[in-house]
Amino acid sequence: MERMAKNLVIVESPAKEKTIKKFLGSNYEVLASQGHVRDLPKSQMGIDVEHDYEPKYITIRGKGDVLAKLRKEVKKAEKVYLATDPDREGEAISWHLSQALKLEEGKTSRITFNEITKNAVRASLKQARNIDMDLVDAQQTRRMLDRMVGYSISPLLWGKVKRGLSAGRVQSVALRLICEREEEINAFIPEEYWTIDALLTIKGEKKPLIAKFYGNAKGKLAIKNEKEAKKIKEAISKEIFSIEDIKYGERVKKAPLPFITSTLQQEASKMLNFSTQKTMRLAQQLYEGVDIKGKGTIGIITYLRTDSTRVADEADTAAREFIKKTYGDKYAAKAEEKKKTGQKIQDAHEAIRPTDIALTPTLVKESLTRDQFRLYQLIWKRFVASRMTGARYETTSVKITAGEYRFTSAASKKIFDGFLSVYNDEEEKTEEGALMNGLSKESALTLKEIEDKQHFTQPPSHYTEAALVKALEELGIGRPSTYAPTITTILARRYVIKENKNLYVTELGEAVNQIMVTAFPVIVDANFTANMESLLDKVGEGEINWKTVVRNFYPDLAEAVANAEKELEKIVIADEVTEEICDVCGRNMVIKYGPHGKFLACPGFPDCKNTKPYLEKIGVPCPKCGKEIVLKKTKKGRKYYGCEANPECDFMSWQKPSIEKCPQCGSVLVEKGSKLACMDAQCGYSTNKQKI
To answer: Which domains does the chain have, with CATH numbers?
Structure first.
């Protein structure tokens, strides 16, 4: 038997090389392209608008050697398998490789696997196919649209604000969402409300019953201030409390779905405090292969960029068997009936799960770094939990009357933990009140104590990375592969800063967003971007020609850019001359923009290089010491208002103070959107700005 020439398998990353080589044996050579090998040039847009938007691809700098090595191996090989990642990005890399290496159709095949395990890799060879040009076109279109936006708008921002800024199709929408949330928070005026709890003793029971004020016979009542609370408190203290109704029931908490890219990023942020970037980096390592004691190098999770919760039948069966064996029959959920659905191409993917359920976190702990282990444990537990039965609770709800007023009390008790024995995504809320089994309508209640408490409504919270991913996903903006890079970009550009998990917009971010909203409202419109994403999906499914999308998009963009160039000339940020005198050469200093915002610089640069911090006065005296209030920034770039005499005077406010004083309590009024509100939340005074 004549020995066959080697087959060549081309993968993306060097980490996969050795893992896959081990699975395939000596007849196969495995090499990595190290990501993309061709792209649009950096020096120009690289799209020939005159000739029906043909992209001009060039070899990426530094990839010449990689391609030369691959060409050499291609010549030797009888068959070439392109085994890049199983998504449209991977499909495009395969196509670029076939173009750059001039691969012959007859000897080239495309293979994909969702996990890097021996079975999956070997099975993929049997399902070799041609490159899916629809998926390639979807990726090409995305790349070209992003390039058109970036290369058309970024120079404008350079000219109007400062060099080095950028705009992007998804990043500009993400920035807008953060800016709008910040505006909502700034404009929020807290409203006062009160709650009343009655502590009731029950004859024969040790623990008192906590009953919460509900309303009256007509329905729910809101208690708006202390006066109303005191009136109700007084009325009920004279009343007899009696039980009107008791309901016993059962509640089931459903098992969670296995992870997709966005939910993994959210949970890893919430439970492990990982940034989206860190989560993706670690998941990539677990997917590509880690050296597991006794197993060698294997991929221990499935592909990490997915928006499908589908699970392969074998993995599903294996998980249910594992649960029965480890936890008992009653913990394994029944397999669901298969629903026939029109499958989307993205649904060729599976959820993110362990490649082998038997590789429990305990077994692999020694072979992983601390962070790899924590992420793997999260994925493993979530997947096991998704195949388990729900947790069951016994519930009791009680309606109580006190004269004309109504109170309620509820309690629940866990009677079966189900999936919670493996995965608890929320701290179990301490259930108020024990189960009141001995309770009946006849039970005698005695009032022990009435508690009234003041509360204030809370503003919307700032976006965290996890919340932003959730918002982008719900709005249909971006896809699994884009969430982490988008957030990384807006942080790297200093449009947004991160403080204690929260994302805050910087002055620079505000300036860029303002220009984008004014000049390019369509680009930063969430509906437009979401609609564009679904068009790209349709290109990937072969329903729309990719050129049609580009032809419709570019002329409108070019027109908006041309208009913006004319219009925005009006807002050129010139060097503003100040009263401040340069103490080196005596010239009037000017305001300049740096990476951290405004500063004072001598106009005599380069002869005089003197600079000073710029304290922007707002024309309002400090309420504590009478000196000027100035606009300042935290170390990370968040805006606030403080006294110029700091640290001697510690006055500070996140909202802009007004010259006006509160007519009720004499405190400072601050700007909240279109209103002025008292700094003292207890006072609660607010008025419309225009009245003043």
So the answer is: 7-131 (3.40.50.140), 140-187+461-570 (1.10.460.10), 192-254+391-456 (2.70.20.10), 261-386 (1.10.290.10), 576-691 (no CATH)
